[in-house]
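#onboarding

Welcome to the new folks! Below is a worked example of what a typical request in this channel looks like: someone posts a single protein sequence, and someone else replies with the predicted structure as tokens. Don't worry about understanding the tokens yet, we'll cover that in week two.

Example request:
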Amino acid sequence: MIILLVEDEVDLAELTIEFLDSENIDCDYANNGQQAIQLIKDHSYDAIVLDINLPQKNGFDVCQEIRDQGISTPCLMLTARDSLDDRLEGFKRGTDDYMIKPFAMEELCARLHALYRRSHPSSSAPMIIIGNLSINISTREAARNNRTLELTPIGWRLLQLLAQSSPSIVSRNQLEDHGWPHEDVSKDAFKMQLYRLRQQLSQQGESALLHTIRGVGFCLKELT
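Example response:
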């Protein structure tokens, strides 16, 4: 799962990102409303965690604007504004959930998973099987021959795209956009991540699953 956290309190944002990362939830971050809207337009998120009292554009207006543009990404407003009027205003503007500060990180995580399940009703625990490789998209876990793959966040994003596209070929540009959504990546860094992913996918005695199609891209499949 990848979410956008929109919060202008830097210390709180850092703590939240650190906790969610430990729960295998990737976070992009915006500290004002205008930046949040641009990121939401440019990228696809599983959920948005949105403060209300933001610089440049408040959370109510952010939520209203993305809904007016047809963006249906689940939204959770996370704010110290605890009056009934504020909560009703949030739902009126299009939020899916509303949580009051201070809050428990564990509850935030649980609510995000609930939002994800509601927005993915047919794939609450999607499994992709490629030969003896199993990949659980919801839990971000992958295993081969009962061996758990140890993946970095970038490695996981690359594997996810390859697995969901399998056995079709994925271009290098597609992998770069998915693995590094907000930054340019050097040739060496790309090669290193692909090397590490290959090492995790195929260890001693195991057949190769990640294949390079020269001049075209990469594919994840079991050769017969």
